[in-house]
């Protein structure tokens, strides 16, 4: 989650005055430096929880749980379940 930081707390007065020449009293977004970006879901754990879920889906599938049942259990479309199974299967065969 992005949070606001008061400019007075982190920037020298001179920098604030220069910025005020362009945007006075407005909100401004300052992007991360190149190379410091975070990948999607990296900060809040979404990526790792989806990875774990997808692994569970694949394991259940190879243990004979149907695509239809997996879709029902995980509230996903059958198309999404097939995509996950294909991706997980590819990952596992490429790491052997």
Describe this structure in words.
The protein is mainly alpha-helical and 96 residues long. It has a domain at 46-94. Helices cover 58% and strands 0% of the residues. It is built from 5 helices and no strands.
What's the number of helices?
5
Count every beta strand, where a strand is a DSSP E run of 2 or more residues. Answer: 0
Major sheet description = none
* N- to C-terminal distance: 37 Å
Query: In terms of structural class, how would the helical and strand content be classed?
Result: mainly alpha
Supply Rg: 23 Å
Averaged pLDDT: 87
What helical percentage do the residues reach? 55-70%
3D shape? elongated
State the assembly state of the protein chains.
single chain
Strand content: under 5%
Low-confidence stretches: none
């Amino acid at each position: 989650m992005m949070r606001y930081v008061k400019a007075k707390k982190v920037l020298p007065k001179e920098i604030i005055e220069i910025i005020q020449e362009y945007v006075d009293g407005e909100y401004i977004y300052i992007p991360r430096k190149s190379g410091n970006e975070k990948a999607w879901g990296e900060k809040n754990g979404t990526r790792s929880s989806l990875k774990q879920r997808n692994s569970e889906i694949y394991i259940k599938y190879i243990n004979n749980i149907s695509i239809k049942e997996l879709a029902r259990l995980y509230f996903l479309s059958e198309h999404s379940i097939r995509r996950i199974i294909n991706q997980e299967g590819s990952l596992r065969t490429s790491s052997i």
